[in-house]
Amino acid sequence: MMDKLIITCAISGAEVTKEHNPAVPYTIDEMVEAAHQAYLAGASIIHLHARYDDGKPTQNKDRYREIVKSIKDKCPELIVQVSTGGAVGMSREERSDVLNIKPEMATLDCGTLNFGGDEIFINTENDIIYFANKMNELGVMYEMECFEKGHIDTTLRLIKKGIIKGHLHYSFVLGVNGGMTGEERDFIFLKESLPAGSTYSVAGIGRYEFTLAEHSIKHGGHVRVGLEDNIYIEKGVLAKSNRELVEKIVTMAKKYNREIATPKETRQMLKMGEK
Ligand code: KMH
Ligand code: ZN
Fold first, then answer.
1. Which end of the chain has a smaller Cβ tally under 10 Å, C or N?
2. CA-CA distance, 266 to 78, in Å (whole number)?
3. Helices 28-41 and 61-74, interaxial angle, to 10°?
């Protein structure tokens, strides 16, 4: 029998706006509501980008502290995974400010890639080492975001050097303009490149969100959905909420007899707190 399914909901993002979909949360109240609804639908992890009330993304520790506290006041058992990726163009010092709140979990972006147009999401090897060292020091569980196969190879080198350690949990973020696509063959290639004993989730961008999710559910992996990654519930129809995207995954999971993991079960499966 396959493991229970861990659903992550990427509620806010840094690049998507209310002009793209009015359900994108900006204010703290909107973030709490989005997180709570996603949790009620079956999400055990919230992937969070802080924003100010006007939608501007920020990595400011005080803003994060307030949002995380407000979410946890409403849903004490939820896992809040903060972003250390921030928005394209932020420096690593700016991006890492959020780590000062000692989050339970955070992303570790494992390589550079084009992000469409003139944008480049920069993660040099030294950046990755910087973030990994900081998270190791603070005991923060990381989810390694890999946008293509070279990023997995980078993690393998850093694991050998003892820089990346603890339980290895990956996220394949596929379908970014400039990154690897999210076809089934891409997914299989990445999945088979992982070290033994690791776990993984997938985040399909745009039209890949649900097809990639289905590959992962079928093969025993985990899934991330949310307005950060995709704003449509089906072709041409805007999602009403983050919750609606999570519900679609829960329905899909039933088809493959995958039960949904609670936050407590997620912590056990990802061996959190063992660092
Ligand atoms: N906003 C992207 C540039 C992460 O959260 O760690 C980076 C991102 C990755 O979303
Ligand atoms: Zn993100």
1. N
2. 10
3. 40
Instruction: Could you list the beta-strand ranges (E) of 119-198.
Output: 120-121, 141-146, 169-174
Report how far residue 43's alpha carbon sits from residue 133's, in angstroms, rounded to the nearest whole number.
29
R_g over Cα of the chain:
17
For residue 110, give the 3-state DSSP assignment. Answer: coil
Instruction: Give the tens place of pLDDT for each residue, 13-34.
Output: 999 999 999 999 999 999 999 9
CA distance 70 to 53: 15
pLDDT band of 275, cuts 50, 70, 90: low
CATH, range 7-269: 3.20.20.70
Residue 3 has pLDDT above 90, yes or no: yes
Residue of 15, 59, 83, 201 best suited for mutating to test ligand 1, as the one with most atoms within 8 Å of CB: 83
User: What residue owns the CA closest to ligand 1's atom 2?
Assistant: 87
The residue-averaged pLDDT of 134-157 equals: 98
Q: What is the pLDDT of residue 1?
A: 85
Tally the residues of the chain.
Answer: 275
Spatial separation of the C-alpha atoms in residues 60 and 49, rounded to whole Å: 10
- CB atoms within 5 A of ion ligand 2 belong to 83
Residue listed under structure tokens 């939608």: 55
Question: How far, CA to CA in Å, does 58 sit from each of 87, 139, 149, 161, 231?
Answer: 8, 23, 29, 32, 21
